[in-house]
Amino acid sequence: MSTSSKLDSKIPEGPVQEKWDNARFKYKLVNPANRRKYTVIVVGTGLAGGAAAATLAELGYNVLSFCIQDSPRRAHSIAAQGGINAAKNYPNDGDSIYRLFYDTVKGGDFRAREANVYRLAQVSNNIIDQCVAQGVPFAREYGGYLDNRSFGGSQVSRTFYARGQTGQQLLLGAYSAMMRQVGKGKIKMFTRREMCELVLVNGKARGIVVRNLVNGELEKYSADAVVLASGGYGNVFFLSTNAMTSNCTAAWKAYKKGAFFGNPCYTQIHPTCIPVHGANQSKLTLMSESLRNDGRVWAPKAKGDKRPANEIPEEERDYYLERVYPSFGNLAPRDVSSRQAKFRVDEGRGVGATGFAVNLDFRDAIKRDGKNVIEEKYGNLFEMYERITGEDPYKVPMRIYPAVHYTMGGLWVDYNLQSTIEGLFVLGEANFSDHGANRLGASALMQGLADGYFIAPYTISNYLASTKLEKVDTENPAFKEALSATQKQTDKLLSIKGTRTVDQFHKALGHIMWEYVGMSRNEAGLKKAIKEIQQLRKEFWNDVNVPGDPNLVNTELEKANRVADFMELGELMARDALEREESCGGHFREEHQTDDNEAKRDDNKFCHVAAWEYTGDNKEPTRHVEELKFENVHLAQRSYK
Amino acid sequence: MNDKLMTLNLKIWRQKSAKHKGRMQDYKLSGVSPDMSFLEMVDLLNEQLVRQGDDPVAFDHDCREGICGMCSMMINGEAHGPSALTTTCQLHMRHFHDGDSIVIEPFRAKAFPVIKDLMVDRSAFDKVIQAGGFVSVNTGNPQDANNIPISKENADLAMDAAACIGCGACVASCPNASAMLFVSAKISQLALLPQGQVEAKARAESMVQKMDEVGFGNCSNHAECEASCPKGIDLSNIARMNREYFKAKFS
User: Is the Cα torsion angle A292, A286, B70, B196 positive or negative in sign?
Assistant: First the structure.
């Protein structure tokens, strides 16, 4: 299959090691004195958005920054626990930029663009230097130097961390850099705002319409370029490890204005989360996968064995990861471990009150190393588990189950992180770019900061310097149009006054997604999902109940707008999963597996990115293809046996 | 696991907006599972209110795993409720009993005006950070990260201080609505690291000045802040901040 003429990846010339240097040399620059004439909108203040806003402001551009929370410091990047990868090779254990590049391409199951991944590995080291200079308190050894650990089954120790709060510390670093620029007047900060529309003028992204969540007012902002760093869309499943306000609306509105959506079906399901306790659960909590370094995962051998875990004798336990993957054992990658847990539950061998869980047992590790050693390593995680479940994991095994955690798919971007809309740049989890079909542990933080600190500032400068931008302000009719579209949707939602709450619809959507577009997918199920979602959408627009005043804080209205978009995105995810007739990374099609239930790629037909083009409401979107070429890392089957 | 469902008597602060007057309102809520988090309990109440066509209770929350600092609530007079080192979102209903009365109010302070119900405006914290809670380094090409060795002891102390989630429990618990624990945590983190020492004096002066300016009170050693802090930020940070401040003022 050859690349669609609508998709120009703009990969620079030269060997992979020289592409970024070549690109940077060719990029046009904006004279320092002229930068103050340009304004850039940045939506989102997580690692990608916060880093981009701060850096663009430092360069001298005027930045308008928007976040949904009450402060930019609360973006969901803050919840990342484990760490951030970099190719520093401080431990001298054989790491290099090339190895990080290689591992990331392979880990992504050969569905990412080589040139982007290489650049990510290249700038990974700058990120660590930058963060240390900002005062990020990374873990250190007694000699005073930075400590590294191995993460997610990696064979080298390349992960930098700040206790179990790496995301928090990196985000606070970016936040403090932003606050410095707010103080200087270079960033204007708008909190408690939600983007409702992207505004195009002459085909270029020139502004946004946002809802002020405090007084309900719709506000218009114009700029010379727009950056979306609005995160992933895991909450389409209702239950996920995402924050409550994490949503797809900003990206979805851009899609409907012409930005193609790349690989929407690639979802990461994290294997070690605390299982669902009941119908009123609002979100899922991740337990760091570092626990699998010492915990042993098992299910009872017998179906429906409801005895308490400690009463099940050794010979009646199935340590299935150790059995199926003797060389990686409990450290098998995320997608593989998640699927294996699902297989056990599907066989009727799940544990706990709901049966949707498996055991993660520290009995042997405590016997081997002593309770003190385990406590030192995982004390805070054990406490968190006990706080949530009321059970003591030193005495009884933890119960875990996979949960939606990250979305590799997102808006399609070229090498410059520009979408198919001119002047619209997409950063971090919101884009589709670097993780292929499966993201490795400790790579999300790396990508967010790489995009924000070290890539977008260059590529956006190049865009501003090389594009003729006529003067546009919010009096332009395009703004009025976008504002009235938003107003219309608000009025419609408030006028339905139906019988079901927004959460009821969201839960129903989540149920369909988890059942048919979750850890394992098949043709019949995906077709069913598309039908059921379409039906649910119809019901939503006839029967949802959104009470309250649109001119005050109205959280039901906020949620209704988000769920309306999630339903449309859910359908696109199912469609994408249906078309991708192969298994790769987080996307497992039951029809495409090896004899021993492993994912089976089809490189002849599907070694490409699928980028979806919106063609109108209730019309089938068009699937475009960007062919992927692997010139450095050769296509091979992943094996963890 | 306790599967017995509870019925609770809730007394919740309702206030339509900053301009409206607020009052306490009673609600009876049944079907509360001990495995629910406190916020899931409020979700359950809201779901019922919405079904009756009533306005749900507005409250701040986001990550629901105790790290974003968005959730607040005074629960029976305690910021984040009765469990130590626990944010409201991580507080679970198994710590309450069938028939309990629970009083839920917003974090109250002059510098944190109510927006609606239990939602307050904490942007005063951002203003204090803008005054100096950073190292003045631009993105670019700083030296290699390992060129600045830092003793593990200081790195650990800096991390202890940096663990602050900016929730404002310290302010809400303090009889003077002082923000000293919050401000001192940031000043300490940066004062403990060589990267932060260059600007230490200017930082201490301007952050303290801003803290007073935006309406936070003074410290009179009640230590309620430390007791209510969900992240265990230590009172010794305030002593360190005072040292930094006096150093700046008198040298």
Answer: positive
Which domains are assigned to chain B? 6-116 (3.10.20.30), 122-136+148-250 (1.10.1060.10)
Could you say which of A119, A206, A334, A589 is catalytic?
A: A334
**Is A135–B158 a contact, with Cβ atoms under 8 angstroms apart?**
yes
> Best interface-test mutation with B: which of A176, A242, A445, A544 has the largest number of B CBs within 10 A?
A176
Residue of A nearest to B192 (CA): A135
**Cβ of residue B203 closer than 8 Å to a chain A Cβ:** no
What's the number of CA atoms in the CB half-sphere (13 Å) around residue B209? 12
| Intervals of chain B under pLDDT 50 | 1-2
Note if A74 is an active site residue.
no
Q: Are A23 and A12 in contact (CB under 8 A)?
A: yes
Q: Which residues of B touch A460 (CB under 8 A)?
A: none
pLDDT tens per residue, range A82-121: 899 999 999 999 999 999 999 999 999 999 999 999 999 9
Q: How far does A404 lie from chain B, in Å, by closest CA?
A: 14
The beta-strand segments (E) located in A17-151 are: 39-43, 62-66, 84-85
- pTM, two decimal places: 0.97
Q: Domains, chain A, ranges and CATH? A: 270-404 (3.90.700.10), 483-606 (1.20.58.100)
Amino acid making up residue A315: E
Residue contact A282–B150, C-beta within 8 A = no
The interface predicted TM-score (ipTM) is 0.98
